[in-house]
Structure formats: structure tokens, C-alpha cells
Specification:
Layout lengths: L2 E4 L7 E7 L11 H12 L9 E5 L5 E6 L15 H18 L4 E4 L4 H10 L5 E4 L2 E5 L9 E4 L3 H25 L7 H14 L3 E5 L1 H7 L2 H6 L10 E8 L9 E12 L17 H16 L4 E11 L11 E4 L4 E4 L7 H16 L4 E6 L3 H7 L11 H14 L5
Parallel strand pairs: 1-8, 2-4, 2-5, 5-8, 11-12, 11-15
Antiparallel strand pairs: 3-4, 6-7, 9-10, 10-12, 13-14
Helix pairs in contact: 2-3, 3-4, 4-8, 5-8
Length: 408
């Protein structure tokens, strides 16, 4: 996604975005020559609810887009559904999509302020941009025209905030795109290349361990996950090191660990339906996208990322249940009781590798994984956070309410 910020219009087609609540009068928001058309939209069902959009051509060759910003009556039962900033952002995403369908290359949001500047840039990427190894390729959403977006009338004082929003949107959509790629298009080698490309673009130190090097380092359990995979999906471990605070090399360092199972059949404990399990690399996708944002924002922190890339397949060489495996990294023997519990094995060895490589005293670890069975059983519709530090878990909970992605 390419978003620029301008004070004045250019030669592109401009979309004027107007937010609606259930109490808004959209007819009063436009000039007299457009009021008849707006009244027709209202009769056709335009409301102030999220997802309701309407567009009319403007006399200057542009387009006026109305979008709702409130939850439908009776549906605002969750805390984050009553967050006006979150709801404004949800509605804005629909407005931006509608503007792009009309070929708009410039966007004006009525009543621009700090929140709108951030939200507009953040949600302007909702037109489903596509990436290859960290580079934008083309938008794929049906009916949406591509090209850059110019966000106009953003005061200089808000320009930096809006640029932050653009970077966050770019990273979010990048991680989303990785998760949506089917396993035949995103093999372990390709996921590894995405991480490597993001690391190089962000001036990170990049280390990639192939199966031989993983064996040398003691990733015995992680290698066992991939025993049944084919030649296109050898296991890898990718390490990115971002040093945004080089003057304090001994300062506490954040370790990001991500689960990168590009497809999880369950192994010998075969899943009944694994059609959506190409998303089992969501933890790795999230961490790679986070490193992309951290590097582009040039944050003054030191961050290390470790993701393991494997395929959990069934085949003649796959690990069988009841097999005892000694992990040299963990210095423990693990008996494989269920081959569909593979994620915790890779995460544990990656955490142990971080401790071995950088020492334990100055590490703060965060791992992200798609432990779908646990999440669906106990906490449907939300993410689950487990922590040995209560304050850290509470921070995740509060941030989840702020951005509309609840964390239990």
C-alpha cells in the first residue's frame, strides 16, 4: 500500500468521506445540488450503522461517500463494541473500500483530527493489498481499483501520526496476507524467505538455521514435527535481531517467538478437517509483521524474533505416537502422546534457544501461536493470553479493548 499525505488536491479523483451516526442528517451534510441524491440513498437504506455505505458523484468529478460508525441496536453487548474509536475505524474501513471501488485516488475525511488521521491511514489498507517477500504487488479485492491513496487535508502537526498509521496498516495487512495464503503457495521455504526479506529491509541481523544446523543446535523436537513433510517443506528456524537501542546493549531485550506451522494435518492424530490449517503459521506471520512495523517505525528498543517454519504432515516417516524424543535444547525427554500437539514443542525449543543464545537475565519473552483447540473450547471469539507476569497480561487485555480485538 502506498499512501501519501497532501494539503491540496492533485489531478486525481477525490473522495469526500462523511461519517454518520444514527442521529446524523446526511442530507444536511452536502450542498443543495446533491441533496436529492442523498435523500434517495437514505430511502434506499443508508443508515449510521457500521457496514452501511452510500456514494454519489460530485459535481467536481469526484465522489461523496457516507459511512456508518455505530453498532446496530442490540449488538453492542461486548465492551469493545461500545468503543467509539474502534467503531469509527470499522465504519471507516467500509468507507475507504467504497471510495476505492469508485476509483478514488485521493481521500478527504470530514473533521480531520488526531484520531481520524491515524485511523484513516490504518484502515486505508483494508482494500486487501498483496505482498511478495515484503514488497507490494497488487490489490486483489474484486471490484477495487488499485493505485496509491493520497490522504488530503492532514495538517502538518498530524502528519507524523498519520504516517505511523500507514506503517501499522502496512504491517497488519502483510501479516493477514501471509495467513491467507494456501499451503501450496506458502511453503516453509517461502515463509522463511518472507522473514529473511523483512529482516534485510529493516536492517536486522538475519540468521537462518537449515535442518542440519537445527540438528547441531539441538532442535530435536522441532525437527520431529517435520519428519512427515515433503521435500518442499523442510524445517527452518529464522532469527531476526533488531537493535534500535545500540547504546544500551545490556538493556532488557524483548524476544518474540512465533509458531510457523504452514499446514497442520495433525500427523498420526489426523484432524477430521484441516482445510483451514494453513493458518497455523499465524504466530509466525504476526511476529514477522511486528518486526516489519518495529523496523519501519525505528523504535528505540532491542528486539529479537525467533520463528520456526515446519509442516506437520502424515507420511511414512512421520513421528508416531508414543515415541520418546530427547531434546538437547530443553535437556528433557518428551514422549509424544499426540502428534497434533506440535506447536508447544517448537515454541519451547525456540524459547530455550533464546536463553542459550542471549542469556536469561535480560530477556522478556512473548510468544504467539494458534492453539486453536484451547481457544475454541474455553474462549471463543477472542485471543487468549497466558503469562507468568500478571501486569503484562493485563496490559494485553487493556490494549485488546482499545483496538477492538479482545484478549482474555
Amino acid at each position: 500500500m502506498n499512501i501519501a499525505f497532501r494539503e491540496q488536491p492533485t489531478a486525481g479523483r477525490t473522495a469526500r468521506l462523511i461519517a454518520l451516526t444514527r442521529r446524523s442528517d446526511p442530507v444536511a451534510a452536502v450542498t443543495s445540488d446533491l441533496q436529492t441524491s442523498v435523500a434517495h440513498l437514505v430511502r434506499g437504506g443508508l443508515t449510521g450503522e457500521i457496514g452501511s455505505v452510500g456514494a454519489i458523484p460530485a459535481s467536481n468529478g469526484g465522489v461523496v461517500v457516507f459511512y456508518g460508525t455505530e453498532m446496530p441496536d442490540g449488538e453492542e453487548w461486548r465492551e469493545w463494541d461500545r468503543n467509539p474509536i474502534v467503531n469509527a475505524a470499522r465504519g471507516l474501513a467500509f468507507g475507504v473500500r467504497e471510495a476505492r471501488r469508485f476509483g478514488a485516488s485521493e481521500i478527504v475525511v470530514e473533521g480531520i483530527n488526531a484520531e481520524n488521521a491515524l485511523l484513516l491511514a490504518y484502515y486505508a489498507g483494508s482494500a486487501s493489498d498483496s505482498f511478495a517477500y515484503g514488497k507490494l504487488v497488487k490489490p486483489k479485492e474484486p471490484g477495487t481499483r488499485g493505485g496509491p491513496i493520497d490522504i488530503m487535508h492532514v495538517p502538518e502537526s498530524l502528519r507524523r501520526l498519520a504516517q505511523t498509521g500507514r506503517i501499522l496498516a502496512d504491517a497488519r495487512n502483510y501479516g493477514r496476507h501471509l495467513m491467507n495464503m494456501p499451503a501450496v503457495e506458502l511453503t516453509t521455504s517461502q515463509l522463511c524467505e518472507h522473514a529473511r526479506a523483512i529482516g534485510r529491509a529493516g536492517n536486522c541481523t538475519v540468521t537462518v538455521l537449515d535442518p542440519v544446523e537445527m540438528g547441531t543446535e539441538g532442535f530435536d523436537l522441532t525437527l520431529a514435527i517435520g519428519d512427515g513433510s515433503n521435500a518442499m517443506n523442510p524445517p527452518y528456524v529464522v532469527v531476526l535481531e533488531y537493535n534500535g537501542n545500540p547504546r544500551s546493549p545490556n538493556a532488557p531485550c524483548v524476544i518474540l517467538v512465533g509458531k510457523g506451522v504452514v499446514h497442520d494435518s495433525g500427523g498420526m492424530n489426523l484432524k477430521q478437517d484441516s482445510s483451514q490449517m494453513h493458518m497455523d503459521m499465524g504466530g509466525a506471520a504476526t511476529m514477522i509483521a511486528a518486526m516489519k512495523a518495529i523496523a519501519e517505525l525505528k523504535l528505540k528498543v532491542n528486539v529479537k524474533m525467533i520463528v520456526f517454519c515446519v509442516q506437520n504432515a502424515i507420511g511414512p516417516n512421520c513421528t508416531i505416537t508414543g515415541t520418546p524424543i530427547f531434546s538437547r535444547l530443553l535437556d528433557k525427554t518428551v514422549v509424544i502422546g499426540n502428534t497434533d500437539g506440535e506447536g508447544r514443542l517448537g515454541l519451547a525449543e525456540c524459547a530455550a534457544y533464546a536463553k542459550k543464545r542471549w542469556g536469561e537475565q535480560r530477556l522478556v519473552g512473548v510468544d504467539i501461536a494458534t492453539l486453536t483447540g484451547l481457544q475454541l473450547l474455553f474462549f471463543p471469539g477472542m485471543s487468549t493470553a497466558w503469562s507468568t507476569e500478571g501486569d503484562l497480561a493485563w496490559q494485553f487485555h487493556k490494549l485488546g479493548l482499545t483496538v477492538g480485538d479482545r484478549v482474555s
